[in-house]
Every structure is written in structure tokens, then in C-alpha cells.
Design a protein that fits this description.
Elements: H1 3-28, E1 48-53, E2 59-65, E3 75-81, H2 92-100, E4 104-108, H3 124-139, E5 144-154, H4 156-167, E6 173-177, H5 183-193, H6 198-213, H7 217-220, H8 222-225, E7 233-238, H9 246-254, E8 262-267, H10 282-293, E9 319-321
Parallel strand pairs: 3-4, 3-5, 5-6, 6-7, 7-8, 8-9
Antiparallel strand pairs: 1-2, 2-4
Helix pairs in contact: 3-4
């Protein structure tokens, strides 16, 4: 066989095929942009439209919902981050009761999502960067107590909340809803569904994704960042989650430090996107936020459902709650 043809078949063709695969990955994993269709004012919440700048200068859009007038100043606050392919409006059912309870809230559209600017790619570390940008903005508000700010995230946003909690010492708490434990396993599950062999192709795909986002999966995996959390953490998950199995929540919680303030609550009959049923988790979220923000004379938490008899002390073991 001609040496040139041999070299072409052995080197050039596989390289071209791999390049094609990587281009498909870039396109295939680009999040679908969902526009915000509901505004806080539509459900009676006071709101200020906010423009932020991401760490690379890209424009971020956000809604700032100030604390109720009756709440003493400075008030506690929560920065809120949506999941992959979602947007800030889809978490309005979550934040409405938090506003009623006395919190200032900042709902952020991450890059490539909602009304924020497009970027070269989206990733969980970039979600965390955008969430941290929101925390910085809240800390500059005169009516917000900079020492009583928490973060709240759903799905990929939950992984971002845990990553942010592992990097910042100025947060009082992090709420994670439906987080995955390990991006490496998430990618392997996806490749199994589309029948892509892990070795060698799937392994190469994962290494390409790591190179593309600039982070090794193990360094940003929630199962690892939970051990580095610098504030109390509440992990919530639906038992019937078909996108991220509930086992991921148990892995995250199981990897906590022995001295860590970390609680896990699993809800039956709740799927990955059951945010419209947040009233199920509302009392637990408010109980956690009330504890970590300290309450005190400047703010009184509303009466909430007392913890169930099986609810653990902190550091916590897992507890299940019916939906």
C-alpha cells in the first residue's frame, strides 16, 4: 500500500473524525435558550431589573427583589441560580415565599441562558462565576446585610452553589436542589444512552470537555466540593428524579466532612423539575435559612412547620419527607 495512503488512513482520518465529534459536542451541548415569560411584577413582587457584568465582561441580566418594607435593615439576602437550559423566571415559585419571609433576592440568568449574553460555551464553573458575581452585587447594597448572604441553586445551578460555597468564606449558607454528584458520571450516563463506547471515544470526549471548560471534572464535582464548603449546606432532592438519580444526593451528602454542617432531605413523588411544588420544601428551606442567617432583632422569621420527629440534628444524616 502507498505510504501516503497508509499515513492518511492511520492518522488523518481518525483526527478528522475526532474533530468532527468535538464540533458535534460543542453544538450538541449548547443549551437551548428559553426566554423569560414571567416577570416578578406579574405575581405581585417588587422588582428592579439589574444589569451585571460577568468576569469576562459578558452582560448578565438579573432581577432584584428587595426585602419587604416591614423588614428591618440591613436584611438577609439570597442569590439564586437556575439550571441548564432554564432561566430565572422558572424559579419564581421558589423565591416568592422567601421574599414573604423577609429576604432580599437576586435571580440571575447565567451566560447563554434567559436574557443574558451569549458566550463561547456554558459550563457549571461559569454558572458559579455568574452566581458569585451576583453575591458581589448584593454585598454592595446598603439595605442588604453583607454578612447574611446565602446562595440557592437548582440542578447545574445547585452544583454551582456548592462550588461557590467552596470558594467563598463570606456566605452563611448554600441550598442545593437536584444537584448531580459527578460530571464524569453524568457524561458517561449520557454516552450510554446514545450508545457511545466509553473507551476510547467516550474517555476522549470527557477529556475534551475538560479542556474546553478549563477545569478537571474532579475539581468541580459536587461530591468533592461539598468537602470544601465554607458554610452550612442544605441538600434537597426528589426521590423520583429521572434526570439526576437520587443516589447522587446520597453521594454528595455521604462525602461531607465529619464535622460539616450539612443536611440532606429527600422528597417522595418529586421529579427533577418539580419547582412548582416548592411548597413541599418551603418550610425546610426557610428553617435552614432562618438558622444560618441568625434572625435576631433586625428580622423575625415567619412561623414554620416544625421539623419532623425524624429530622436530624446537624451534622445531619439523610431524612425523607413525603411530598
Amino acid at each position: 500500500m502507498d505510504p501516503w495512503l497508509t499515513w492518511t488512513l492511520a492518522v488523518v482520518v481518525p483526527a478528522v473524525l475526532l474533530l468532527a465529534v468535538f464540533l458535534v459536542i460543542d453544538v450538541g451541548f449548547r443549551p437551548k435558550r428559553e426566554p423569560n415569560t414571567v416577570h416578578p411584577a406579574d405575581i405581585g413582587l417588587p422588582c428592579e431589573d439589574v444589569a451585571l457584568a460577568a468576569v469576562n465582561g459578558k452582560a448578565l441580566t438579573a432581577w432584584y427583589i428587595p426585602p419587604p418594607v416591614a423588614v428591618g435593615r440591613p436584611a438577609p439576602a439570597v442569590a439564586v441560580m437556575h439550571g441548564w437550559g432554564s432561566n430565572r423566571s422558572q424559579l419564581l415559585p421558589v423565591v416568592a415565599p422567601l421574599h414573604t419571609a423577609g429576604y432580599a433576592l437576586l435571580l440571575i440568568d447565567s451566560r447563554c441562558h434567559g436574557d443574558s449574553a451569549q458566550d463561547t460555551f456554558a459550563s457549571m464553573p461559569r454558572f458559579a462565576e455568574d452566581l458569585s458575581t451576583g453575591v458581589d452585587w448584593l454585598r454592595r447594597r446598603a439595605e442588604v446585610d453583607r454578612d447574611r448572604i446565602a446562595v440557592f441553586g437548582h440542578s447545574v445551578g445547585a452544583g454551582a452553589a456548592l462550588l461557590t460555597a467552596s470558594r467563598r468564606s463570606d456566605l452563611v449558607g448554600a441550598v442545593s436542589v437536584s444537584a448531580f454528584a459527578d460530571p464524569e458520571k453524568i457524561m458517561r450516563r449520557f454516552m450510554e444512552r446514545v450508545r457511545v463506547p466509553y473507551r476510547p471515544l467516550g474517555w476522549l470526549v470527557n477529556r475534551y470537555v475538560e479542556w474546553r471548560i478549563g477545569w478537571r471534572f474532579r475539581d468541580v464535582a459536587p461530591k468533592n466540593t461539598i468537602r470544601r464548603a465554607l458554610c452550612p449546606v442544605l441538600v434537597l432532592h426528589g426521590e423520583d428524579d429521572r434526570m439526576v438519580p437520587v443516589g447522587d444526593a446520597y453521594i454528595i451528602h455521604g462525602n461531607r466532612r465529619s464535622d460539616e454542617d450539612c443536611e440532606l432531605i429527600v422528597y417522595t413523588r418529586c421529579d427533577h423539575d418539580s419547582v412548582e411544588r416548592i411548597e413541599v420544601a418551603g418550610p425546610d428551606i426557610l428553617r435552614f435559612l432562618s438558622r444560618v442567617t441568625g434572625g435576631g432583632p433586625r428580622w423575625q422569621a415567619p412561623a414554620a412547620r416544625p421539623p419532623a420527629a425524624t429530622a436530624p440534628l446537624v451534622p445531619a444524616a439523610a431524612v425523607s419527607r413525603p411530598a
